[in-house]
């Protein structure tokens, strides 16, 4: 029953900061803006030049017009760790029964209202950053990224020592299974306020190293047994 529960994602808003002057520099994506007032949030530059930013404008805006504005813009992603709630989950099929056929695809039940603390912080983050930009001479435009635009999905396979309260153990092995391991972001207890990719890589490497070590130990034991028999 725990499989699929505690789905996690970032509350994410895209922001375009527009000024009067052309931008000849590039704010790198590797930069990260933090503030102690928003402990679960971060702001990351898109790292786009004017040509790329122009592609983000609505299709009804002529490319020449979009290009003029894009050359005077910086792009940012504002993201907040939304926490975790059991009712935000992936359901296996119709009514959660798994089923078969075209109508049995998994569905995602997600409601950010279940996480009021995170939604409040994100709203304050967006307002605060837009106010700071305005004071610096930038007019900003924002667009909330919907669920369909989720880039960093985590959760749904809770890790823990108690099989009654978790799906996998501390080694990534599914409780009750001998050779089934989980090595993606579904085991992470938090999505964090930044891109979790490196954490996912580290987890996968850790599990792989443990499996490799176990395999080497098995081979050595088998070799010793064969020698004794000989």
How do the strands and helices of this protein lay out in sequence?
Blueprint: E1 10-18, E2 41-45, H1 50-54, H2 63-70, E3 73-81, E4 89-91, E5 107-109, H3 116-135, E6 139-144, H4 197-229
Antiparallel strand pairs: 1-3, 1-6, 2-3, 4-5
Structure keywords:
230 residues, alpha+beta, 29% helix, four-stranded antiparallel beta sheet, two-stranded antiparallel ribbon, elongated
> What topology, given as strand order, has the largest sheet?
2-3-1-6
Mean pLDDT: 87
Cα distance, first to last residue?
50 Å
**Structural class by secondary-structure content:** alpha+beta
Gyration radius from CA atoms, angstroms: 23 Å
Instruction: Catalogue the unreliable spans.
Output: none
**Estimated share of beta-strand residues:** 15-25%
Oligomer: single chain
Output the number of helix runs.
Answer: 4
Shape: elongated
Order of helices and strands: EEHHEEEHEH
What would you say this structure looks like, in words?
The protein is an alpha+beta fold. The protein is about 30% helix and about 15% strand. The chain is built from four helices and six strands. It has helices spanning about 50-55, 65-70, 115-135, 195-230, and strands at about 10-20, 40-45, 75-80, 90, 105-110, 140-145. The strands form two sheets. A four-stranded antiparallel sheet has the order 2-3-1-6, with helices on one face. Strands 4-5 form a two-stranded antiparallel sheet. It is elongated, with a radius of gyration of 23 Å.
């Amino acid at each position: 029953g725990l499989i699929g529960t505690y789905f996690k994602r970032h509350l994410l808003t895209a922001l375009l900061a527009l000024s009067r002057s052309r931008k000849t520099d590039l704010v790198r994506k590797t930069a990260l803006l933090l503030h102690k007032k928003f402990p679960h949030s971060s702001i990351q530059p898109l790292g786009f030049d004017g040509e790329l930013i122009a592609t983000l404008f609505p299709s009804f805006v002529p490319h020449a017009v979009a290009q003029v504005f894009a050359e005077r813009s910086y792009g940012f992603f504002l993201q907040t760790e939304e926490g975790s709630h059991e009712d935000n989950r992936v359901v296996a099929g119709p009514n959660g029964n798994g089923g078969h056929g075209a109508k049995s695809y998994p569905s995602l039940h997600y409601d950010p209202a279940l996480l009021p603390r995170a939604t409040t912080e994100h709203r304050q983050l967006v307002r605060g950053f837009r106010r700071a930009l305005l004071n610096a001479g930038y007019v900003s435009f924002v667009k909330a990224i919907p669920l369909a635009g989720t880039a960093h999905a985590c959760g749904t396979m809770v890790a823990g020592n108690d099989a009654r309260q978790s799906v996998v153990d501390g080694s990534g092995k599914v409780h009750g299974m001998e050779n089934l391991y989980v090595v993606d972001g579904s085991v992470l207890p938090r999505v964090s306020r930044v891109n979790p990719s490196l954490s996912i890589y580290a987890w996968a490497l850790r599990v792989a190293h443990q499996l490799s070590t176990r395999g080497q130990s098995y081979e050595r034991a088998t070799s010793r047994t064969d020698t004794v028999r000989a």
